[in-house]
Amino acid sequence: MRQDTKNLKLRGGHWHYDRRVPTRYAAYDDRGRVRVSLKTTSLDTARERRDALMAADDLFWASMAGIDGEAAGAEGVQRQRRVAALRYKSAGQRALARGFTYVPAADLAEAAELHELIERARIVERKDAGSKSASERHEAEALLGGASPPPILISEALEIYCTEIAADEQMGKSENQKRLWRKSKNRGVQYLVNLIGDKPILSITRQDAQAFYNWWRERLTEKPGRQALKANTANRDLGTVRKLFAEYCRYIGEEERPNPFRNLHFKDRFKGDVPPFEDDWVRSKILAPGVFDGLNEQAWHIAYALIETGCRPGEIANLMKEDIVLDHEVPHIRIRPKRNREIKSAASIREIPLVGISLAAMEKFPSGFDHYRDKPDLLSATLMKAFKVRKLFPTPAHKIYSFRHSFEKRMLEAGIDHDLRLTLMGHTNNRPAYGDGGSLTYRRDELLKIVHPIRANIHA
To answer: What is the pLDDT of residues 360-375, one digit of tens each?
Structure first.
C-alpha cells in the first residue's frame, strides 16, 4: 500500500507541508506555493499536522473569497457570519498544526507560560503589520489569538439559554412541562426574528426593540373584522426577549450592556378577572343530570372534581393513585410535587378534603385520570369545547377556571377563615405560620358549609 504523502515533502530528514495555492484562490493568497516545516521526522505526526494545515488553508481561502462582494440586510449579516466562522475554525486548525491550541488573545496573555508566548511569537514573521500579506496576518491570528469567534445569532442565543443558562428552571418539570416552557420562549423569539431577522443578538438596537414594541401595539389595536389581542400576551413576549438579552449578556460577562427592550411594556387597561360561576348556574346547568352524556367520562369527572376542591385543572388531572386517599376518616386528595413534575409553588402543596360531587368523582376514578395526565392542552381543549357546545358558560368571559374562582367566592361569603381559604386555594400566606392550617376534619366541616347539593339522579 502506498504511503499517504500528499502535500508532504521530506527535506533533510524532516517533513514539510508543500501545497500549491489553487488558481481560483490566487487573488487572495500571494504565496503561490505554501511551504511550512512540520518540525518532525515522524510520518504519522507529519500527516496529522499536514491534515490540520490543509483544513486551515481550505477554510482561510473560503473565508477570503467570502469577503468579496457587497450584500445588504440579512444576506450581508449571514455572509459576515460565515466568514467569521471560517476564519475562526481556520485559526484553530492552523494553531493545532503548529503544535498549539488556539487561545483568544486576552486569555493567552493571562494564562500562557512565558516560554509558550515566546515560541508563538517566534513563529510569526517579524514584519510590520501593514506589510504582512493576508496569509501572514492569518498565521498571526492563529498563533496570537486574534481571530474572533462568530457572532451568536438570536436563535442560537435562545438555544444556549434553554440548554445552559436556564437549565435549572427545567429541573423537576415533566417532559410536557418542558415542552410548554420552551414553546412559550420560542414564540416570542420567533416573532422578533420574523420582524428584524436572525441577526447577532448583541447587534439588536433600541430601534429594533421599538419596532417589535410597535408591531405588538398594532396587534393590540382593534380593527374591523379583527379582535384585538390582550396586553398581557404582548407583555409576555416582550418579557421573553428582554430576559433572553439580559441573561445572555450576564452569561458572557457583559451585565452592564444596556438592554434594548428595557422599559417597553403595555398597560392592560381592560384587564378583567375570569368571573366565577354563580351557585344557581352550577346547580341548574352544570350539575343537571345527563348534561355531559357523550363526553369522555374522565373529562367530565375532572370538571366535577374541580367544583368542591377549587383546584387548578392540571392539579386534578395529574393526581396519582397515592394522592387520592379514600380509605380515611376524611377522604381527601394530596397536591404535591412529583419527581418528574413540578407544581406552581410551595404554597400549592396542600391536602383538600373531598365533599359532595368532588368526592363522588374521585370515588369513580380512585386511581386518577390517566387519559389526561400531563396533557393540559388536551384537557383544556376537551372541556372548553364541551362547555361551549352545551352552553355551560354564562358569558364569553367564563372559563373552566371559573370553578376555582367560584370556590374562593363561596368560601369568602360563608365566612371561612382567611388563612384556611389561602391554604385550600394554594395561595401564599405572608403571615408567620402557626400550626398546620387545621385538621382534615376541621377543613371538611368548613367545606360542608358551601357544598352544592347533589341530585339523586345525577350519575357521577
So the answer is: 999 999 999 999 988 8
